[in-house]
Amino acid sequence: MSDKKIKKLEEPCSLIEILNIIGGKWSMSIIYVLFSGKKRFSEIERSIPNINTRMLVKELKNMVENEIVTREVFATVPPTVEYSLTPKGKKLEPIINELHKWGLEFIY
After folding, report:
1. Could you say which of 1.10.10.10, 3.40.50.720, 1.10.10.920, 3.30.710.10 is the CATH number of the domain covering 2-106?
2. In angstroms, rounded to a whole number, what is the distance separating the alpha carbons of residues 97 and 83?
3. Is the distance from CB of 58 to CB of 20 less than 8 angstroms?
């Protein structure tokens, strides 16, 4: 039985790696907000109660680096920045929706 556990940990896409990408405290909330389409930074910030600016910047940067979210900058004064989900990020929708359903059933 311990051989199976060791083998699973050696797989290239382990749960730890997945959680490093989408397991931040605010990551799923940000992704959930972006399911409805492109959003500016301030729109995302207003949509998520209790998130602070520093954490939103950190989470978005991590998700851009991991190709979950795209960041598009427009040459305006001041610069306009929009965030949207990549195809990779959009594939998380059914998973996050199922987690939401689970939460409604067992947490509330």
Report:
1. 1.10.10.10
2. 20
3. no
User: pTM score, two decimals?
Assistant: 0.81
Q: E strand or H helix at 72, and its extent? A: strand 69-74
Tens digit of each residue's pLDDT (9 = 90 or more) over 8-63: 555 666 888 888 888 889 999 999 999 999 999 999 999 999 999 999 999 999 99
Neighbours of 53 (CB within 10 A): 10
Q: Per-domain residue ranges for the chain?
A: 2-106
Q: How far is CA 48 from each of CA 14, 60, 69, 78, rounded to the nearest angstrom?
A: 29, 13, 17, 23
